[in-house]
Design a protein that fits this description.
Radius of gyration: 20 Å
CATH architecture of the largest domain: Up-down Bundle
Helix content: over 70%
Number of strands: 0
Bound molecules: fe (ii) ion
Number of helices: 9
Shape: elongated
Strand content: under 5%
Length: 228
């Protein structure tokens, strides 16, 4: 039997769906991180895992604001997307191919979330739930950044620019100025990548070996954030 249609109910249902989706992502991301051969990708995924845990807390705050407990609704859409991604990766050895397969899976997740948070924001605004809207917008912004950053990592891997991690970074910082000029001529991609992560005028960064989470924080605070 059909029930009376109310935006309040639809909104609650969508928030419950997002809540379950985020929890599924928290469970799934560590597997992707463990399988990544690129330290750049692993750093980006780790950063987003940390953000996703915060997103779960934001949704719990929204439920508290509504005076309710999250229900046990299963987000079957996210379940399907994650399952398909895991199948795709399971048959591959650690490699750039697997990394790109992981990014393809992660970006499908992000696009699904962007759609979900976008309509949730619109409904929160229509319902006059300003505090909830701010929380949802914060997460929506993170999902968009995640998607854009994954695109950058994919581009870097597919073009052969991906520096991969500490070993290649150490190799770069050991170059003296003359070697740097030589390398610039023989491998312009390497220099472009270095500038991408450090900025071309950052002389201090050139002597500091990067850790994986440095890559992550640089990615997630990309200048792209300010362009929208
Ligand atoms: Fe999320």
């Amino acid at each position: 039997m059909k029930t009376e249609a109310r935006f309040e109910d639809l909104f609650r249902e969508r928030i419950e769906d997002l809540y379950d989706a985020e929890k599924q992502i928290v469970d799934a991301l560590p597997k992707l991180i463990a399988e990544s051969s690129s330290a750049t990708l692993a750093g980006a995924l780790q950063q987003h895992l940390d953000e996703t845990k915060e997103q779960v807390v934001r949704l719990e705050t929204i439920f508290e604001g509504m005076g309710e407990q999250p229900g046990s609704r299963r987000c079957e859409g996210m379940q399907g997307i994650i399952g398909e991604g895991e199948q795709s990766i399971a048959k591959l050895k650690k490699s750039p191919v697997l990394d790109v397969a992981a990014i393809a899976a992660a970006q499908r997740v992000e696009h699904y979330e962007i759609a979900g948070y976008g309509i949730a924001c619109a409904m929160a605004e229509m319902l006059g739930q300003e505090d909830t809207l701010l929380l949802l917008q914060e997460t929506l912004e993170e999902e968009r950044d995640a998607d854009e950053n994954l695109s950058e990592v994919a581009e870097s891997i597919l073009s052969g620019d991906d520096m991969g991690g500490e070993e290649e970074e150490v190799e770069l910082v050991e170059l003296d100025e003359e070697d740097e000029k030589t390398k610039r001529k023989s491998n312009p991609n390497a220099t472009r990548s270095r500038e991408k992560w450090h900025g071309s005028n950052d002389s201090h960064a050139a002597v500091r070996p990067l850790r994986c989470d440095d890559f992550g924080s640089r990615i997630w605070r990309s200048p792209l954030r300010g362009r929208r």
